[in-house]
Amino acid sequence: MERLDSLVLHGPSHPRRLAPEDVEAWRAMEALHEAGEVRLIGVSNVAPSHLEELLDLARVRPAFVQNRCFARIGWDAPVREVCGRAGIVHQPFSLLTANPEVLSHPAIGTIAARHGRTVPQVIFRFALALGTIPLTGTTDPAHMREDLEVYDFDLTEEEVRTLAVAGEG
Ligand SMILES: NC(=O)c1ccc[n+]([C@@H]2O[C@H](COP(=O)([O-])OP(=O)(O)OC[C@H]3O[C@@H](n4cnc5c(N)ncnc54)[C@H](OP(=O)(O)O)[C@@H]3O)[C@@H](O)[C@H]2O)c1
User: Does ligand 1 come within 6 angstroms of the Cβ of 81?
Assistant: First the structure.
């Protein structure tokens, strides 16, 4: 392989700010990008404060933020807000495993039944409606197919609103 499509920094070493070693890692990733060895660079497991700090110092802005997505904090709303402002693509992961209360939520089951879809499909469709690129952790070929079959139906605005608050107390 001569070139990577995407390289993601797994996560900053401090919970809220960038440590010197995080900046050093980002500079190394920028150098790989500038040398043409990596097309896109990104960060993972970040808080909004990490991202703001990185945006201030980056020569090459992150193309992606890959974050665990908890419905109870608005599906990572604070980080998605910074991403939206900075033109960064948000890649949510653990959409299913981090949100058992949404998987079993009666209103979400009703939405799935209305569209003749599974609850995971409704959640992935919702993530697309938020403007994110959802990741799936499945290792099952049938689930992989199911997760890809979400481009031929739409959620209504009201359904999107229901999903948006499904993780709130
Ligand atoms: N950046 C990071 O720090 C980080 C950390 C963790 C994970 N990740 C990435 O995030 C992605 C997702 O993580 P996750 O494992 O928490 O994923 P997830 O998509 O929330 O959950 C996957 C789990 O749900 C089950 N499942 C049941 N029905 C499913 C369906 N229709 N579609 C998908 N899964 C279904 C899967 O079982 P089956 O396998 O039987 O389908 C699997 O046990 C992965 O690509 C992983 O590499 C990144």
Answer: no
Residue nearest to atom 10 of ligand 1 (CA): 93
CA of 64 to the centre of ligand 1 (A): 18
- State residue 145 phi and psi, 5-degree precision: -65, -45
In tens, the pLDDT along 2-51 reads: 999 999 999 999 999 999 999 999 999 999 999 999 999 999 999 999 99
Whole-prediction pTM:
0.95
Q: How far is the CA of 59 from the centre of ligand 1 (A)?
A: 32
Contacts of 134 (CB under 8 A, 6+ apart): 91, 92, 93, 95, 123, 124, 127, 128
Task: State the angle between helix axes of 77-86 and 48-57 in degrees (0 to 180), rounded to the nearest 10.
Answer: 20
pLDDT of 1 higher than 90: no
